[in-house]
Amino acid sequence: MAIKYxxxxxxxxxxxxxxxxxxxxxxxxxxxxxxxGNGYLGVRNALEEPYTGEKRNTFVxxxxxxxxxxxxxxxxNVADMTGITVKINGYELNLLHGELDDYSRTMNLRTGETxxxxxxxxxxxxxxxxxxxxxxxxxxxxxxxxxxxxxLDQEAxxxxxxxxxxxxxxxxxxxxxxxxxxxxxxxxxQFLSKTTQSGVWIAQHAACRLNKDVPALPVMGRRxxxxxxxxxxxxxxxxxxxxxxxxxxxxxxxxxxxxxxDMAEALKTDGRKALAAAYEKGYDPLLAESVKAWDTYxxxxxxxxxxxxxxxxxxxxxxxxxxxxxxKHDDNRVGIGAKAMTGEGYKGHSFWDTEMFILPYFTFTKxxxxxxxxxxxxxxxxxxxxxxxxxxxxxAMYPWESAWVDDGEVTPLYMGADIITGEPTKILTGIxxxxxxxxIAYAVEQYEQMTGDxxxxxxxxxxxxxxxxxxxxxxxxxxxxKDRYEILDVIGPDxxxxxxxxxxxxxxxxxxxxxxxxxxxxxxxxENMPLYQKLDQKLDLAQIREKVLACVDRxxxxxPGADGIIPQSDQYLQLKKLDxxxxxxxxxxMTISKDFNMEQLNQYMVSKQADTVMLLLLLxxxxxEETRRKNFVxxxxxxxxxxxxxxSTHAIVASDLGMEEMAxxxxxxxxxxxxxxxMHTSDxxxxxxxxxxxxxxxxMGFGGARLQEGxxxxxxxxxxxxTGMTFPLCYQGCRLSVTAGRDTVQVKxxxxxxxxxxxxxxxxxxxxxxxxxxxx
Amino acid sequence: MAIKYxxxxxxxxxxxxxxxxxxxxxxxxxxxxxxxGNGYLGVRNALEEPYTGEKRNTFVxxxxxxxxxxxxxxxxNVADMTGITVKINGYELNLLHGELDDYSRTMNLRTGETxxxxxxxxxxxxxxxxxxxxxxxxxxxxxxxxxxxxxLDQEAxxxxxxxxxxxxxxxxxxxxxxxxxxxxxxxxxQFLSKTTQSGVWIAQHAACRLNKDVPALPVMGRRxxxxxxxxxxxxxxxxxxxxxxxxxxxxxxxxxxxxxxDMAEALKTDGRKALAAAYEKGYDPLLAESVKAWDTYxxxxxxxxxxxxxxxxxxxxxxxxxxxxxxKHDDNRVGIGAKAMTGEGYKGHSFWDTEMFILPYFTFTKxxxxxxxxxxxxxxxxxxxxxxxxxxxxxAMYPWESAWVDDGEVTPLYMGADIITGEPTKILTGIxxxxxxxxIAYAVEQYEQMTGDxxxxxxxxxxxxxxxxxxxxxxxxxxxxKDRYEILDVIGPDxxxxxxxxxxxxxxxxxxxxxxxxxxxxxxxxENMPLYQKLDQKLDLAQIREKVLACVDRxxxxxPGADGIIPQSDQYLQLKKLDxxxxxxxxxxMTISKDFNMEQLNQYMVSKQADTVMLLLLLxxxxxEETRRKNFVxxxxxxxxxxxxxxSTHAIVASDLGMEEMAxxxxxxxxxxxxxxxMHTSDxxxxxxxxxxxxxxxxMGFGGARLQEGxxxxxxxxxxxxTGMTFPLCYQGCRLSVTAGRDTVQVKxxxxxxxxxxxxxxxxxxxxxxxxxxxx
Lengths: 776, 776
Hints:
The structure is a homodimer.
Chain A: E1 3-4, E2 16-19, H1 27-33, E3 36-37, E4 41-43, E5 58-60, E6 84-88, E7 91-92, E8 99-108, E9 113-121, E10 127-136, E11 143-152, E12 156-165, E13 180-184, E14 188-194, E15 201-210, E16 217-221, E17 224-233, E18 239-249, H2 253-257, H3 263-281, H4 283-301, E19 304-307, H5 310-325, H6 352-365, H7 367-379, H8 381-390, E20 414-417, E21 424-426, H9 429-432, H10 436-451, H11 454-475, E22 477-479, E23 484-486, H12 504-527, H13 529-539, H14 541-551, H15 581-584, H16 598-601, H17 612-618, H18 625-637, H19 646-656, H20 660-675, H21 688-702, E24 705-708, E25 711-714, E26 722-731, E27 734-741, E28 744-749, E29 755-759, E30 762-766, E31 771-775
Parallel strand pairs in A: 25-29
Antiparallel strand pairs in A: 1-2, 2-8, 3-4, 4-5, 6-7, 6-12, 8-9, 9-10, 10-11, 11-18, 12-17, 13-14, 14-15, 15-18, 16-17, 19-26, 20-21, 22-23, 24-25, 26-27, 27-28, 28-31, 29-30
């Protein structure tokens, strides 16, 4: 494994992720971590030349399609535009062949550009010295571009071929009807395709520029359109080649308001126009525009760490880079994929991951984006209500997996083989993992408290809270024997435990959700009767109140036992013990699933990820510190952290409990989930929730920025290696710059109004434009 | 290019095709020429480990499907079972990486088994010595098997993974719904899939055997099912691994008579049963059964050449090998693909190639297979009549491309880019290339004359002849001006000329077809009135006769001009001349299409392939030798031989004209169309018509075995390098063994009845069991 992370000096220090040697085993990982995008497009960094095992993915937001009737909708892989065939005297560039004297691939997080430099000898002994550059524009959603500069040490025949390759699939599933292709004026390539089921059109255009007078030969294959340049290159002749590409889709926001009558024609026209404009500019000017947009982002968003923190600094920037490109900031019809748009994993679907692990970044720093994402959840109510009804419940039961805004539940029904029976394993999460509904309500309240965005709450937020509460009131089951309400047969966050009863996390969050609805109704009655009436008309609030009140006080909330342990479920503490050392020490995750099937796993006291520990994080105020500590220690011992959602949560809770060393250890481990040395973790895409978790553990954990009883509290607790950190927040519409030392915190209110918040445990008001400093 | 063709000594002399060095540029070629099959299955010889650019195809006869509404039906690529992942300490076997000390891949044409031997050092320096073997059983349609024997020079962790990979597509077109997979008892893998449009089920089963006690871990991905073995191999430990596979389809002949009510279940049951039986036998016994079937074939079918003929001998056997595996000898619902079942080229469709270039092999040596193929054309009448109707004609107008028996015309409408306009090029062959209809009638008469199979003629053959004649009578157009019938706006065999009028080949063949129908009617009236009446009832023979008689005598048959040249079409001799040297001397074919689009090509006096020369071959008796010579020389000079159908035709006609050297030069070139050194000719599959052409030029050309006025005539004319040849024929149901010397021919009648035929120009009768010899 040869990825270097100490990259750069001077202005570039801790801005570069560098692969310094070519290692075929890291193809997938590097494709994902070097991926580029802008929220509209997501493009894996597959190398220009092909390799077996590569995943050459380009995704366009919102273009979901079902490849076949029995499958769930997913983001389809559109025709690849990143591949470039380079042949020298008939030998195709292939770094595994010939001789590779020099190799580096660099992602400059500051600019979003990747640069690959190689010196490679063909099997015939001709040396190619080349630099490949590539970016997806942050300034123009539709633009991506590549540049190739090279020379040879001997005269040779060069063949360059590139265009669109629509033979790509999603691991064998073809989402597109055959494309309609053509070339205009020998230059502009046009590739128009339509998804098979959802009827989404994709228009891809590209044009190339070569610093030699060589005509391009159009090469049209089945589902491919390319242009071929063939020429003699003199020794040391500098060849410059660039390719400018644009992608548009019929789901583009611009078509949402006024759909053209002939969508295909509109896309062709708009695409050609966009290509012409971009092509006229060329690679470097287009890059400059994109870099400017990145400048703006980093100026607002960078987090700076001081002390012995080089890798941490880079990893935090890496997270901030991906957090920025994983979301279409202005499109409330799409969520964030569990692998962002960097791989086929989880099909571009949104999970609770968004609200619990990613949204906090936006809620705390980019409220406009957070609002877009929560508007998406409002639009999701359509599917949530349908799902509740289908399952015999009331109100809004959010899909476990969500795709296009009205797709409803899209969790697949089966996954890999059961290692015992040999049959496909049933996926139950879409059926019985219910906590996501409360998680969304929780996120809505966090957003309200952090931003004070009444408009959102009035238009969308309250309705989400109220209708999710109604769901829970219909979901709980009365136990006559115990005279209490229970929630039976669920999966909690710990997905190694199926069909459990009274999962503590789920029950507490359900109770939270219902009480939140009661508070909302009370507040609206007092403060905004017109809105109350409007919502009442729509939802029948009296009924919700009645149903919630009928169960909420008697909803069973598992309490700590004599040993202080809160049972994760009715079953958990009675399960068989298992020596977890083998699995805990493995670099790979989910190795336990090679030894046990789900049915067997269900019988052991082993957890995939933070479950009760997650509860300690979200509703920690309900437990004393001793209880939290005992439960943290106990549940950590039974947890394999086989989900990327686990470690950052543990880091924050450990930090809260003053377990500084352990907190930092989990933090370090969470930083390496994508950036680490294990070669295959990111094959299916980066872990978007883990990247959000990096921000959470950095800013909410060590930076100590949290909501406490509805008010922002900043109480930094830096790890030993750090001497300081600076991070931005956005509170009540005002931008804050927070600078923390080991014992101090400085907050500058860059906004236009006074803000009241806690610094450590002191409640203070910071006037608009003012800066205050406090120590422990 | 490192394919060796002098392979083998002793018993194996001229039986081995050997690739003696690994050359990535020859991947496609070798996959095709080393392809294996049995007429039911066709499996490309992709290497076990993956390479970019590979085409890992497995086809099952008759399983045609339309990948999308706008595409034509084609043979779908079923899940691959040939791939085996081999990892040594995490490094995947990849001959382009690490160090390759030794490499050979051998196809033993005698046994149908391929063997690949490698000595390869991993990037870590561990040496793997391995032998990979593979065959498709000729004894059992459904069975294919692989064996891998290897050792390492150091202890290392080995990972073997193999199963079914259903992520394969036809160049991006996915033909199958998601598969249903499972493993039984930890051993038997089952992979069941259904084509998306035609609803054809494919059941694939496989089981592996390893000479170590290592449990298999099932690995089920999207469209993949594999088993994984992970173990430590000691230095020099001999590892033996084998994989036995079976494939069944719902289009299997066995289901044709009595279709099971639950096809999927039947396929699962039958597949598991077949796998169990095959697995119990194991690789070597299964191979032995297959070799026995090959023994039978070669005993009956081998052609032996004497003299300086090593490569010719191998190439002829290579052709005989492929001719045997390209056809399902007993299934009259399927034809022969233009690339057999060795590649995606031409989608598994049958063209005139079958009747004109391949069928003669079967008609002259394997009449049962010939009959099967001509029964297929009888079944095709359904589509032929539909096509005639759609086009406003009468009778039977055969599809230019045929697939499943009732698919009708399946020629695609577009191909690659027009290099001038940038738009897709329209394919006109399905619309205006009409000669195939007469070609089939011609093949039927050849079959009748060679076999004397009255049963076929009465049940099928006459009807084909009569209804095709009716087509031609409706197709011809009367020219008032010239008071003659013409055939305007066609494509002749020369596909570089579109929209031509009075293509000589087409007109002569149409006339032949109509006169043949008149002869048939006359004969039936005289000899078999009941059949005449039956056909009359079905086809209205009086009407056919009337319509044919109305035009046949005045159908324009282009005559030689003052210079002796028969105009290929009304336009041809007026076209612009072009210097063809550049294209004629190119190793690659169709290079002219990089300089001209079809519209431009149409304006030049340049031909793709034998057209008028083909006429000289089929109906040569209608022209004197001088005319034939003049036309041969003239048209050869304007022909680029850009179709693989061209050279063998030229070889035979040159031989007929006594142009011995030229004949042999064309012959040699035709032998290398697949087996030669040019690296990409066979990428899309072997050229089945060219392979048939090799047999034609060998036996009908040099061997001089031809039908002359309905009677077999054998008049060998060996090339200078050969001193003798022996070949089998089957005439009137009797097997003949022919041994030719430079001036003599010996014929042994191995049949049970006396045969009358020509040896040179002497008509003689050879009594059953007797042998005669004649000299020039």
